[in-house]
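Protein 1 of 2
SEQ + STRUCT:
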Amino acid sequence: MEACFLPTDLLVEILLRLPPSARRRARLVCKLWHDLVAEHTTEMQSRAKVLLWHAGSAAAYLVGTCNGLLCICDNRGERTGGTVTLVNPATGEKLSIPPLPGAAQFALNYHCQKWDRAYSFAYHPTSGQYKVVHVPCSFDRVCDYDAAHVLTLGEAAWREVPDSNGKRCNLHAGIVSVDGVTYWVTDGGTARIVSLDLDDEHVASSTMALPSLPDKPDDYNLTEVDGRLGVVLRSPSGTREAWVRDKGKWICRYVLRCKWQQIPRPYFAHGEYFLKFEGRLLLYVYSRKSGVVKVSRKDEGRLVAKMKDDSYGSNYQTFAYVKTSEPLGVYDGTK
């Protein structure tokens, strides 16, 4: 039975008056509300686009995107811990994030270029909350955090995550947030995947094994595929494999058999297609098929971007972006 007894036209008018974040939560009430929001709001009708970000020479680094909002970290700013800012490109609004707790002790080393790698930007689909996560890590003899920290947009202070001590992140493997959970891989010893539930902000007591053990710490990275956790593995022969976590098991879904081909980070599965860098300058898309998708040098994709500089594809990051009218002012915790 539907959970709504209002006339449809009146219900649509009410839903359109809600802010975008509230409309996304309203979709969870029932099938009718889900369909009405999808049919009558522009952000649900807009198809996500691929955002290509040059990470090699950027003045600021893109941590992640959620529902059209960008989380950007300025590693070269004077604020220690990196200066984290949220931006809505569609409205031009910006929102500064409070500095990370304890970052003042690294004041003499503010020039470090890796602060962005320790952050993740996430959206919890049930609560409708946006959260910025800083994982436990150590790098460049500058940053040394033994616990994870979380900031909820609209609040003024970071919180330390219980039970996250001793689970330091291998920053080479990246951090991904999928369906309200943030994942990272432990640094040192046997690599294991740690999961942080952003609802109760607790780290799971058990960790997850990778599909296979890589030869080197930088031979793999986490990713997201269709709302599921994924891992990209790179072998010395040049083969790239993308594995997806499904119903508690790892399933190999993509295989690239040429060392000149690269699977973009952190986002490569885009709707009915997947992305692939080739050589220095070319970005291709290929149709996704059922079963394992295998691509060799002979397979022809569709060229969608050609970089103008002399950088390799590994200097670029790819993200999903959809235009939104989401206001950032409502999340200003200083007001």
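Protein 2 of 2
SEQ + STRUCT:
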Amino acid sequence: MGQKKQRLLEAKRHQSPPEGTRTASPKQPRLGPPTTLGPQRSIYFSSLKGRPARLGSEFFDQPAVPLARAFLGQVLVRRLDDGTELRGRVVETEAYLGPEDEAAHSRGGRQTPRNRGMFMKPGTLYVYLIYGMYFCMNVSSQGDGACVLLRALEPLGGLEAMRQLRHTLRKGVAGRALKDLELCNGPSKLCQALAIDKSFDQRDLATDEAVWLERGPLGPSEPSVVAAARVGIGSAGEWALKPLRFYVQGSPWVSVVDRAAKRDAQARAKASGDEDF
């Protein structure tokens, strides 16, 4: 027994690092800059406790209007094939309520191969082509045929890659470089900037490895959200006037500012005593 104990002690000494050598504690996160300059895995993708920070299926499992509001302030992330991550904070959305909504692609309950994503589980992407050349990205919500259109982002990371993608994908447009404010201030612009095309249709935003949603540091408070009419649906009758577009009050990144809705939001904020927005 004495020889077995001695052999175990010798083996343990061989496995131990030389005296004076420091080893990193697995419980101590490394706070310094990365030692390599290549693409890094997002520090936001996993928390320090190892739990994913991305928003899961339960976030998307709500009706279109509250989901459209809940999107504001969250961070959309797109990982390119080379590992580069593009990031943008959602600042503008539109809600489409399903079969009763005359502006929705699912109006009247019609289902086609093109709009199938609208009828899939909440969190499914519905990406469609407009004008034969541009893409728009929607996310399904609770309710058959209901979804949320992502209209504008505030770029947070990977801006030069976004700029290059926009330059490459802009149809028949050449010339000056785009300003930061112009990168993602529209539904088709953000799709260009994030390299989102038809191949993303019907993907699950809760589980996909190339695109996902992370909780933002702080979502906008209720008085800072403007509710206005949706854009480009003039033929939808009374539905064209319903305040189903939502954007962050005062954000310079939104696509279109509704001045009347802005005045209403300011009046409500003043009445509630919260004018700092």
